[in-house]
């Protein structure tokens, strides 16, 4: 099928990562992938949750939110006592993905907080958040990043639209997808998490394998974007 932006099925959207986007955060990046824009910030605090006190081990946690005008119509803010279940599910995914590549024992009794706020949503906000969060966390940790992170991590969406497997769906594709998947993959090509379901149709093994191949290709391209953004601060292989 012809894609609106002219991409082939295996190509990610144009992706840029602008480091040090926020002057107050220890680490920050604005990730732009197509029409999706997410600001990811990271901070290191000298405390840990109660269950880790005295154990010499750190923690990593994430929060995710969509700003009110990141979508149309306006999305109401979360208020006390009313929590958006989707936001909670996504922030847990971001935290799991980051912890998977982190050696928390090398963090010491500190907590690395990652905050992902969606400025503009055009599909793939959770995957963009993971990809950007890694870069922000590296900047927040500075010289400790190489020791704390055993590998990099990135994520991409894949789906089947009009019978064809496509990589890195924008909103128009995602909303029409019969099958929707998200792949979280380390820089060395190991799967961290695979989320997928048949939204409108089921899928067979050949289609699943096609989506896996696209997920691996897409996350490799995103790893290259992370590496380009970090430059001399990249320490995680080719």
Structure, explained:
This protein has 238 residues and is of the alpha+beta class. It has a single domain, classed as GHMP Kinase, N-terminal domain (Ribosomal Protein S5, domain 2), CATH 3.30.230. 29% of the residues lie in helices and 29% in strands. It is built from five helices and nine strands; from the N terminus they run ββββαβααββαββα. A five-stranded mixed beta sheet has the order 1-2-3-5-4. Helix 1 packs across helix 2 (125-141) and helix 2 runs parallel beside helix 5 (205-230). The longest helix is centred in the C-terminal third of the chain and has 26 residues, at 205-230.
Kindly state the mean pLDDT as a whole number?
96
Q: Total number of β-strand segments?
A: 9
The helix/strand series, from N terminus to C terminus, equals EEEEHEHHEEHEEH
- Text of the CATH class: Alpha Beta
Large-scale geometry: globular
- Tally of alpha and pi helices: 5
Distance linking N and C termini: 33 Å
Integer count of domains: 1
The biggest beta sheet, please?
A: 5 strands, mixed
Given as residue ranges, the uncertain stretches (5+ residues, pLDDT < 50) are: none
User: Structural class per helix/strand content?
Assistant: alpha+beta
- In what order do the strands lie side by side in the largest sheet? 1-2-3-5-4
Instruction: Write down the CATH topology.
Output: Ribosomal Protein S5, domain 2
Radius of gyration from the alpha-carbon trace, in angstroms: 18 Å
What is the assigned CATH homologous superfamily?
Answer: GHMP Kinase, N-terminal domain
Share of β-strand residues:
25-35%
